[in-house]
Batch of 2 targets.
Target 1
Amino acid sequence: MVLEVMELLKEHLPLTQEPFVLSGDLNIGLVLVDVVNGFCTVGAGNLAPKQHNEQISQMVEESARLARVFCEKKWPIFAFRDSHHPDIPEPPYPPHCIAGTDESKLVPALQWLENEANVTLRCKDCIDGFLGCLEKDGSNIFIDWVKKNQIKGILVLGICTDICVLDFVCSTLSARNRGFLSPLEDVIVYSGGCATYDLPVAVAKTLGDAIAHPQELMHHVGLYIARGRGAKVVSEVSTKSF
Ligand SMILES: [Zn+2]
């Protein structure tokens, strides 16, 4: 059934994707969205996968692969960590990624990023990382990072394709269009480096009022909406030019 629906979805919401080659010509920054245990590591919490999930594992692997490339080149990386105060809920989600717990830490494959000089880490307590970068004085850490590094393109990976990744991409595109993010031009979403969670409709029905969230479908829809808003969606990221 899901396979048939995927076929229909791809027919009616076709997503054209190009491969992307990293080269030193473009000032590019890597943005990693919430590659934390609470969303990625089996059994780590309320919103973590309950069993091995291929899409999530691939997203983690690709995040680690590209993070290594960026660190070798000393190119800038901006890594979000979902991180909540225990007394402040985030509806409609159950408690997750409480600050100071393992859930809000980067996954083991990315822990080493915390000690790298080219990496900016940002704990955020909301879905939209762009808003999560707002400081009390009105400044925005992400805008500052783009300007300080004179970034012209961002490559976005992470979880969830249709939630935190999508909201961050949409807000960033709006901010760019309003002139807040100069010199940023391109927002590039790597489909194979993104993942979302899986709650098939048959399982959702057994959970009362849970909203079904079939992984492949919602991943595709998230990418499709990102592209519709002006992001570039790329099918692979290679480094073969250097
Ligand atoms: Zn959260």
Note: Residues 78 and 151 are 12 Å apart (CA to CA).
Target 2
Amino acid sequence: MSYKIAVLPGDGIGPEVMREGTQVLNQAAKLHGFKVELEEGVVGGASIDAHGKPLTDSVLKLTKESNAVLLGAMGGPKWDGLDYSIRPERALLALRQELGLFANLRPVKLFSALASASTLKKEVVEGTDLLVVRELTGGIYFGQPKGVTKLPDGTERGVNTEVYTTPEIERIAVVAFEAARKRRRKVTSVDKANVLEVTELWRKVVTRVHKEKGYDDIQLEHVLVDNCAMQLIRDPKQFDVMVTTNMFGDILSDEAAMLTGSIGMLPSASLGGKVGMYEPVHGTAPDIAGQDKANPLATILTVAMLLRHSLDQNEAADRIERAVEAVLNGGYRTLDIQEKDCRPVGCKEMGRLVREKIEASKG
Ligand SMILES: NC(=O)c1ccc[n+]([C@@H]2O[C@H](COP(=O)([O-])OP(=O)(O)OC[C@H]3O[C@@H](n4cnc5c(N)ncnc54)[C@H](O)[C@@H]3O)[C@@H](O)[C@H]2O)c1
């Protein structure tokens, strides 16, 4: 079996963490008897510098012709002054739209070795293992009308519109219920149905999908977004799969990320179209770029998600996740998760340690 993977390292720490991620991917392929053909493309700020735009047609074509896309991160202070239409982050939005990636999966799992690295109490976060399913191509980030207009009295009026249609809600609800079936069989749907009509529709459709599409083995609960934000901090272990709109998911998944101690630990997958796109949750971390300080584990765990969701290589994915856990249990830490009495390592060394554990473990 041979798979083509588009590798888009991006900017800042993107290329550093991607080097460790792709080495793990090549190693997993070798150990588990499949082939990966990695083809690299330039995106984000690097693409603006080289081609004057954040995403070229040839890179877009490469992603569409691949089995999966592995992405680093894009952006940085160098490009912050540019117009929104050509900012590095536009490439991300364009890729999501072009590839039809309507479902963003962000697992938030606390490795027990890191329980005291969180800003919350150990007894609150220990055992946290939840999955945020965020709708990614609809809602207020894309709804029309939007913009800022001048009013006759000289003041301005800004508008964004939260829009969801029945099919958009149905398909994301199905993703959440299917994911829950492979986990602890509970879905929490998050909305603001007491105030926003659009999320009243969200609640109605999620309830109907649950009832009519054969998901009666899954427990479904509805929670208002403000209460959800509070519950995430109060008792994160109550959640299994959380499904929500684009904007609520954006905010809640960053909040949930902090339960694990560092954004440098979190992988994500964007699914829905023919090609899945996989990226660490963090950005380009310009403050530590080029210093071998970045944590590559988010990218390495992202590779595991790619293997599981796009290549169906579950054993290889499990093996990578076990190796990450073993390295953390061994007391090795990058700067972002450094604790007393732990062994400090850089990005390259952390990658090497994970590969060593993968090699030593059984498939
Ligand atoms: N998906 C993406 O491409 C994406 C996502 C978020 C931010 N960004 C861009 O990245 C740039 C910086 O954004 P930011 O500072 O808000 O967020 P960031 O995630 O890049 O950094 C936030 C903090 O976390 C630290 N950090 C992040 N990843 C780390 C890792 N792997 N190891 C160790 N420490 C890590 C950074 O050093 C920084 O202190 C901006 O240009 C932003 O637009 C891109």
Note: The longest helix spans residues 14-32.
